[in-house]
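Long-time lurker, finally posting.

We've been working with ATP-binding cassette domain-containing protein (Massilia eburnea) and I want a structural starting point before designing mutants. I don't trust myself to interpret raw outputs, so I'm hoping someone here can both generate the structure tokens and explain anything notable. Sequence follows.
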Amino acid sequence: MILIEGAAKRFGSHAVLDGINLRVEPGEVVSILGASGSGKSTLIRCINGLEKLDAGTISVDGHRVDDSRQLQLARRCSGTVFQQFNLYPHMTALQNITLAPIEVLKVPRIQADDEARKLLASVGLSERADAYPSQLSGGQRQRVGICRALAMKPRYLLLDEVTSALDPEMTAEVLAILAKLAAEGTTMLFVTHEIEFARQISSRVVFLDQGRLLADLPAVQFFAANGGLAQPRIAQFLSKMSKS
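Top reply, 14 upvotes:
Generated this for you. Predicted structure of ATP-binding cassette domain-containing protein:
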């Protein structure tokens, strides 16, 4: 379980996160929605320890992210896929995927290679194992990024606007992979502007506005007139996104 209690984060005088309370159970797919600057990406960065909270706590399967002795244990429970791929340019797709299992989990190289090739096959990239990032399309690089996160066998997958740098065709490729993972029961915390996709795969939807958690509802209720749409700010956001 990912447990967030009273999470607060400031950049100077600006409150990016303001008293966030959130619980993500194994098997859930939780989409985080909100306008740009609402704190969505910062929340993901705080969960994996890339940003430190100013107040409150975050734990992943009982491991406190703010405790340096427990941070690595917390990170082993979750895998993160970023907006900008963050692949090592001097390594092949296969090498990018196997690096952490070999170095961190001490998986034998032959085993790591075999598992990485199976992951690449699952996302339709069997023939691109030896390609470097510069030889891959944006959609292919993002699929390698997903494989890299999954190679660590995380209990939770954190996804931060993973389609924001992609064109519509590449976005469709990546969303298809995520839909497959969701159907297989992968636990995901998914920051996105893809509203229809969030509607289709989410078990819950969280809405952030100016650093505050404005709604945390089952997806069906959030998108229904008596749920999220009953709140003017959410209705305004969804209306604007549907026209974009």
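Before you design anything, note these points.
The longest helix spans residues 168-183.
The first strand starts at residue 2 and ends at 11.
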